[in-house]
Specification:
Blueprint: H1 4-26, H2 34-52, H3 58-79, E1 83-87, E2 100-104, H4 118-136, H5 138-153
Antiparallel strand pairs: 1-2
Amino acid sequence: MACLPYVRSLVLVSLVLSVSSASHVLAEGHLPAPGVLLLFGVLLLVPMTLLGRRTLSLRSSLLAMGTGQALLHTLFTMTAVPAVCESSSALPGHHAAFELACSPVTRDAMGPAAADAPVMVLLHAMATVLLALATSRSDEAAALLRAWLLPLLTLPAVASPAPTRRPVLDVPPPVPPLSVHASVPTLRGPPLRGPQPA
C-alpha cells in the first residue's frame, strides 16, 4: 500500500478546500475563480503529503489546520472577484426577456468588509476543529478502511485437489476375433427348393 499516503493527502486537500470554501461563503465572503482554487489545491498538496506521512496528535493538527485556515482566508480575501449582478430586463412582467448583467466591483464599492465579521472568524474556527479531528483520526480511519476492504479485494486461493490415482481394473487382454466363418463353406447360387434329384 505505497500509494496510501498520496490518496489520503488528496482526500484531505479536497476536504480542506471544501470546508474552507463553505465556511468562507457562509460568512458572506467571496471566492476566487475556480482556476485559482485549483491552484490553491495543488499548492496544498505538498504540505498535506508531508503531513500525511506522519501521525499527528490533535494539538499539532489544530495548529497546522489553524494556520492553514488563516492562510486560506487571507488568500480567498485577496484573490476574490466579487461581482454585482442586476437584472437587465427591458419589459417588466412574467414573459419578459430576462438577462443577468454581472460586473466586477472594486473593494471600495463593496462596503464594510465581511473578512473581520465575527461570523467569519467563528466559521473558520469550526472548520479548523473539524479538519483537525479529521486529520488526527485519518490514520485510524485508513487502518479501519483497509481492514474492511482487504478481505473484499483479496481473491480467494484456489484449492487444487490433490492428485489421486485412478484404480487400475484387471482387464483381460483383448481376444482376437475367431475365424469361425472361414471353416464353413459358402453357399452360392439360388436356394434349393425341396429335395434335389440324385
